[in-house]
Amino acid sequence: MRCFIALPALVAVVAAQAESFNFAATTTGNPATSAVDRIEPSATESTGPVDTARACAQISQAIDRSRLDFPSVEAELALACLQDVPINTEAASITINSIKQMVQFQSTLIYLKNPPEGYSNEPVDIIAGLDDIDKKVNNGEYKNEYDFENAIAELLVKAHDGHLGFDGMAYGGAFRWRRSRQASLISASVDGKELPKIWALDDYNSTGVSSYTPSAVTKINGEDAVQFLQKEALLNAYHDPDTRFNALFYMQPAESWGYFTNPRFYPGPSTSLTFENGTTFTYVNLAVVLQRDAWGGIEDGDTFYRTYIVPSTSSKIKKRSSPHSLPRQLQHPKEAELARRYVPFNYPKPAIEHQSFDVGLAGYFIDTSVGTIGVLMIQTFNTDDNNDAVEFQNVIQTYISEAKSRNVAKTVIDVRTNGGGKILLGYDAYLQFFPSQEPQLMSRYRGHQAIELIGEKISTLELTNQDAELYTSPFNYHAYLDKDLKPYDSWTDMYGPAKFNDDSFTNLLRYNLSDPLTTSSDRFSIGVTMTGYLERSNFTEDPFKAEDIIILSDGICASTCSLFTELMVQQSKVKTLAIGGRPETGPMQPVGGTKGSLVLQAEYLTALSVYIVQNFANSRSEARDWAEFLPNGFAINAADATVNFQDNIRKGLENDGMPTQFLNDSASCRVWYTPENYFNVTSVWEKVALVAFGKDGGMDEDACVSGSVTSPQQQQGEGDGNPTTSGTASSSSAKPTGTSGAAAGGARPQGSWTAALVCGVVVMASMTFGASLI
Fold it and tell me: Where are the domains positioned within the chain?
């Protein structure tokens, strides 16, 4: 995942200009994440019988009585309050139009409508779906604001892309749905060989009850448990069915009870679990109040609307704590009772760890039956500032040095529950393991009328102090090199457009990792020089053999994590081991999250559009014409609104043009969780080591789930059962290639360097966009 470090500066630049047009970037309030991410609603406020007309007032009174920072109420009462919030049909219709303008920037828009044969999800026509919602708005079919916003969320989640979303405040800004922690579940095989069953987490988390025999969950709300869970899994943003299933359960690495306990959509008033032994338990579902201070003036649906929904008044709603937060679709709520500084709860003491809160990066050395192995836990690539990014690089470097000094040759890289982060940290992590390689990632973005206008105008800017943030935007051709690492000569040269799947795209794009402004600049980048480049050009020898590394994934690997895995697996041929998934045999994908390479916020797109109109429109008439297709602000407040702006295109499959999002890259092998694995991470790593290195130093295929051992072709998104398209070249004739990079340092492509005088300082720049992204 990447978003702009430069975004706050750009928004500030255009804020005053926005008032000149009815084209302003609206305020988008986001629930604070630092505290909200760690919620355990231990007490539920009693509110009495549900009366829809009084529901919001009852909640407000209950909050006033509570001393909790995040009080909770019964889910049924919260729903009644939300369904009392009136809908403003004009504002709703304007918002739908603005969302349609935003999703034109979704790189996979046409592929979602017309996916390749073999893709594991149903087609979804986002534009037609939004038109249908708009029609229902104007026909009066939505009786309240919540149902309207919920319909948008239900449509966009069908894209199964964690970079795409619109969370209105009624849908996702006031409450977080919550099932009882006592209903938290795991999916586990009792012996690691039998098919997994569903279990209540607490049945295996009890101590001192040696005589108790856990009983599997057979039904949820009267329906077969597995069938219920597979339906519920469709309501999360992962594209792989096994990953969606895993995301429902307790995740020790993420310190989260999972999406079953923390559902994105209303879970009903209660949840019942029926067990094999015939017992049934029923639990009341809850709604956690995310911002108690906002409720001081709420007494009914109308005052809720004025507080949360109207953009002009909802600015008092708290912003999220960091502008670099992952999109909400890629977040997993952390639990207060599990949260621990640095490394997850109940993990062993690491040999090396990142010292910043919420940067899950640590190295371990453990003794196993196949000898001492190293484990590098990478649960995120996200950091809040450049100092943390530098430390991120140092932790990995120290881990590798320590492994070499201990003569530890085998490494497990655990990327479970990794939602992404700063792309350059993904690049550097790869380069620390393979500094001899030239990273072969390529991207592109979708062409349309708004892109053409923005790109043409932004590409006329020079690198000056005033326009630097705009100059480094992805719409400026200076931001990229071409697929052969040569600079583009103009916007037209970069834009093309290239045609695939009856849609238009830019030519292929790559980053100049030799450019200091792309990597080590504190203003435009993350302050980290890439390993193998410039002053780190002395790193030339790969510290480990590819066959001595295994990547462990539960499929919950997205965005930058997917790019890191793409480089490790597709370019350097590292093997992967998937764990968990649906209770059926066969292979599983190690990357089930979005494989997009750039996320853009709606706020950024709107601010950029305001700038274009203000600075390039020659008349109000022209400005009005442009406003028809440039992104406009929403007429309602949003907790989060983002699009996947760039695809990742695999080296060797360029002519086919298919985004990696639609390739089924199977893991080398798959194993089941056992109950112990959910509580003892060392047992997971020992299992992985035994499977990955337990047969003459290599993979013990007999220890894999039946039918899960895959061929190199299946691991590269090819072979039987994988998607195919009718691109300009057949995917079967194009094979991914591993390329050995030139010697580090001076032999790396340098691009075309230009000098610009900025506030008396000479800044060398050929491409600055990649530096400002996460």
Answer: 7-177+287-336+602-643, 179-286, 353-439+529-597+649-719, 442-525+745-772
